[in-house]
Design a protein that fits this description.
The protein has 234 residues and is of the alpha/beta class. The protein has two domains: 143 residues, 3-Layer(aba) Sandwich (Rossmann fold), CATH 3.40.50; 79 residues, Putative phosphatase, domain 2 (DNA polymerase, domain 1, Orthogonal Bundle). It is 50% helix and 12% strand. The termini are close together. It binds magnesium ion. The site of magnesium ion has 7 residues, from loops.
């Protein structure tokens, strides 16, 4: 029986991945714009993933990988004006008003009257806490958990810390790798709501996807109906 519903934040309750996608043409513009920067962005994507174990997730981690790769790619033609513009771009990424999912308020408000809600978001503590605060949605949650990774071990810890049995837990999120697979694997239930903007690092293989049983919705607005339909039997 579901007693607690967990929500992912980025690209589930609000859009955020687009900020990284939109940064690429802005970086190209700062660097001159006329060159083909595909190789730079390919290297940057690889560096970001490679550096996760050291820097974690988030805009500031991205900034370190980005500045290093831009400097390597452009060599001596990279100057201090461009460095300042790139740092201003990072600051803009951290302060940009990201769009809240249009269904978030209604869904959280309705579900919070019947279930305990917990927000589980992956990233750097200060960065994620600021986003949660700026979203205006924090008040719907009994607990807000900012984690460095979303692995089975981390979900076990989060559930234990909040006295939640995995069979009473339903997780909602846009990433099969972070929000769905690990939760199913520890005995919880999960609802996948894909987002149109995705990060390749969050992909899972067809084999992994086919091995698990989870629910899939097209948008967050369909969650209330799903939970009402499932509530008597799961
Ligand atoms: Mg997400």
């Amino acid at each position: 029986m579901i007693k607690v519903i967990g929500f992912d934040a980025d690209d589930t309750l609000w859009d955020y991945e687009y900020i990284y996608h939109e940064a690429k043409p802005k970086i190209a513009k700062i660097l001159g714009g006329s060159e083909n920067y595909d190789e730079l962005f390919y290297q940057l994507d690889q560096a970001e993933v490679r550096n996760i174990s050291l820097y974690g997730y988030g805009v500031k981690s991205y900034a370190l990988s980005m500045l290093e790769n831009v400097a390597r790619f452009t060599g001596k033609s990279f100057d201090s004006d461009q460095l300042i513009q790139l740092i201003e771009l990072i600051r803009d990424m951290l302060t940009e008003n990201f769009p809240i999912n249009p269904y978030a308020e209604e869904v959280l408000s309705a579900l919070s009257s019947e279930y305990d809600l917990i927000l589980i978001t992956k990233g750097e503590g200060y960065e994620q806490e600021r986003k949660v605060e700026r979203s205006g949605l924090a008040g719907y949650f009994n607990a807000i958990e900012v984690v460095s990774y979303k692995t089975e071990a981390i979900y076990r810890k989060v559930l234990k810390r909040n006295s939640i049995a995995s069979e009473n837990f339903l997780m909602v999120g846009n990433s099969l790798k972070s929000d769905i697979l690990p939760v199913i694997n520890i005995g919880g239930k999960a609802v996948h709501i894909p987002h149109e903007v995705a990060w390749f690092h969050e992909d899972v293989s067809d084999h992994e996807r086919e091995a698990i049983d989870y629910f899939q919705l097209e948008h967050l607005g369909q969650l209330l109906e799903l939970v009402q339909r499932l509530a008597p039997r799961i």
